[in-house]
């Protein structure tokens, strides 16, 4: 058996964050060392409580949860109750947590775990990047201590979702995103280009409901709110993008991107209509993306669009194909 | 017969500008009232001389040519000899012009013709938008005097070509582009999303060479330089995008776009990596682009990719299908 990977998941739980956590908890080869939370889908405290609710549902209240940034460094925080419900988790009947978050701030926890396990920690960031940028300020050597960073965020050839140009996680803290992308560590970015192609449907929801476990009853239920948003604002149909779970699956090597060039990538931190846009140099798209000297980010532009089946198989406890790729 | 359309062509001639002019000159239903030039593919004076060379080749030295902006208002001008050759026109043996540009500055000429023909002039802008923005400053009522503006420029879901985010015409003067897009007149934007799908090939070049007229000998010859650039920097093959001719064909109604939503469109005028990006709100792409209150630009995202055949038919003097659409 391959050695366990230690992941720190930085998230803003959030419906799809919850799906990502449940997906990861179902993999015996992955060890979640801690979950840190940040404003985004909901406020950072609620995100921590939601994370605890999900961990307790999965019987994993042993995993430490730490609260992080309440806003970006400009003091702004764009929350998304219209997407994730007023409690950030679809307003289901999931009980309040019995456990409490750690007293250690998120960025300090990230730095501590990285120092304790030099070279052995992977970061999965599925919310705004304020905690990771703060951790980089606290420990400038963090890039040498961390093995890999996977980020759900950005939009390259796909339109944004927070604004015409910008995806919500990056738009919520463009300055932090620029710091994280430029830090010199190996980064995989999973933007809307990939996640908007991986769609969970009502058929998946029915499978989850029929399975009837506490986890699948919750995920089936929470998808109602998510489908409501996607039907109303995005697709005109009841299906939803697997943003955060896809990034999780890529982080642990369950999904091999179909197209993921390593390219020079920056973030627009100006005040104009492009604020928060991820500017990735994909001009080489007609020539197989020739190597770039300044390339700093692996950008996942396409996956094979079968991930929702894998996600639902995992949540239903079905036997899975052997498909780990990294 | 439909009444003649009066077009003012604002250009930076340029290989594909030359193709656009020759395409338009082959249409008996289109009257080019004047050609104004701007820096871009080459400097504004050379663009005027190149325009005269092309007009004389086609026996149309009667059309007035006027020189416009030498740089944008920041004093910058990014020319493109690596694309268009050191003379801006593929370094062929086309003779120097016998005629000379008008003494009237481009922006003044645009304003004068619009005042003389209120509501009857169409603008086709296939270079940086400095002349149009200057004309708007000279005559704030210009939007009421002009019937329509068609612009080759921008990149929406397609990467830029001047930078990862920005297309060259818009990148060369983002401030002017913002002024022109916001002026409140009907604007059709033909960005790289459309033009990079309309590819002229070596087969087309052979047809032009075999036709053997002065015009087709020149166009076949000038394509050598264009193919050199596209093979080396873009496609790895000898084919080239019909940027400016496609915009010309759309301006006169020869090509009906397959997908052209009217959407809110702005330009990034900041100093960051997105400078010159056209930020068009195409987030409604999954729902048939629902109507937007602030929509200001018709953005051509797709055409049917058969335009190069029409272009070469026209240049070869072949009978054309009846396909005018507007």
TrEMBL record, chains A, B:
Query: Do you know which Pfam families this protein is assigned to?
Result: IU_nuc_hydro (PF01156)
Please give the superkingdom of this protein's source: Bacteria
Under Gene Ontology molecular function, one entry of this record is: hydrolase activity
UniProt KW Transport keyword: no
The UniProt keywords, alphabetically, are: Glycosidase, Hydrolase
InterPro entries, sorted: Inosine/uridine_hydrolase_dom, IUNH, Ribo_hydro-like
Q: Which residues form the Inosine/uridine-preferring nucleoside hydrolase domain?
A: 7-305
Q: Does the keyword Hydrolase apply?
A: yes
Name of this protein: Nucleoside hydrolase
This chain's source organism reads Saccharopolyspora griseoalba
